[in-house]
Design brief:
Elements lengths: L3 H19 E4 L3 E7 L2 E2 L7 E4 L5 E7 L3 E11 L5 E12 L2 H6 L4 H18 L3 H6 L1 H16 L4 E12 L2 H43 L1 H16 L16 H16 L1
Antiparallel strand pairs: 1-4, 2-3, 2-5, 6-7, 7-8
Helix pairs in contact: 3-5, 6-7
Length: 261
């Protein structure tokens, strides 16, 4: 028959095996929420080596690292009644392991669904131009709303980014025509400004030439020099405009008489 020492040895062996089976190792980024006889221990355990006395204790591992979830494309109608498809990416992490286990069944799935509904809601309140040109504001509003609603679950939403906005082909063509018209308008404005500036310079040049009659002669001689520099057969005969003044004076009285009649 087995002696008392054998029973003690067997008991100690079973006890050692039981204690070894109760050892759990949690990494630096992990925390363990332990339930003892169905009641949660006030503080999470870890990291390092901890003891979970089965079957009295049950432990749930929670990762404190940042989770990244891709929100699938959502069909949204903007505030100005334009149908678009929008997808986004959400970055969040657990800051309170106790709440993430006690307050929600699955904090990852809950945050994932919350991101989808919030994306449809926020984009539906914005105009298309705001969605395309002011995406930073949309991202900030998404982050604030999701963070507030997920705070009771012990989840902190760090960043939400709208990745892509898919527009219908009809809207893309309309926007292309709008951009083309805007470029044409700018080109016409620039051309008109150039004509205006050129007219001002010509006016100033005419004023200077009118005050200095010899300047016209110098300009005329410069033009002859430019023409002569080119290999051509052009012959220029300078005719002073003063020769035509007597003819203009003879025609002036009949016109004045006609105006009197």
């Amino acid at each position: 028959m087995p002696s008392a020492l054998q029973f003690i040895g067997i008991f100690l062996g079973i006890l050692v095996l039981y204690l070894l089976s109760c050892i759990r190792i949690l990494f630096e980024y992990q925390r363990g929420v332990v339930f003892r006889l169905g009641r949660a221990i006030p503080k999470p355990k870890g990291p390092g080596i901890i003891l979970v006395f089965w079957p009295i204790d049950r432990m749930t591992r929670i990762s404190l690292r940042t989770h990244v979830h891709d929100v699938p494309p959502q069909d949204v109608i903007t505030r100005d009644n334009v149908s678009v498809k929008v997808n986004a990416v959400v970055y969040f992490r657990v800051v309170d392991p106790m709440k993430s286990v006690l307050e929600v069944e699955n904090y990852t799935f809950a945050t994932y669904q919350l991101s989808q509904t919030t994306l449809r809601s926020i984009v539906g309140q914005a105009h298309l131009d705001e969605l395309l040109a002011e995406r930073d504001k949309i991202n900030q509003r998404l982050q604030e709303v999701i963070d507030v609603q997920s705070d009771p679950w012990g989840v902190k939403v760090g960043l939400v980014e709208v990745k892509h906005v898919d527009l219908p082909e009809v809207m893309q063509r309309v926007m292309a025509r709008q951009a083309e018209s805007e470029r044409e308008r700018r080109a016409k404005v620039i051309h008109a400004e150039g004509e205006f500036q050129a007219a001002e310079k010509l006016r100033d040049a005419a004023t200077i030439i009118d005050q200095q009659p010899k300047a016209m002669l110098m300009r005329f001689l410069q033009t002859l020099t430019d023409i002569g520099a080119v290999n051509n057969t052009t012959i220029v005969f300078p005719i002073p405009i003063d020769l035509f003044e007597p003819l203009l004076r003879r025609q002036a009285p009949p016109r004045a008489a006609e105006e009197r009649d």
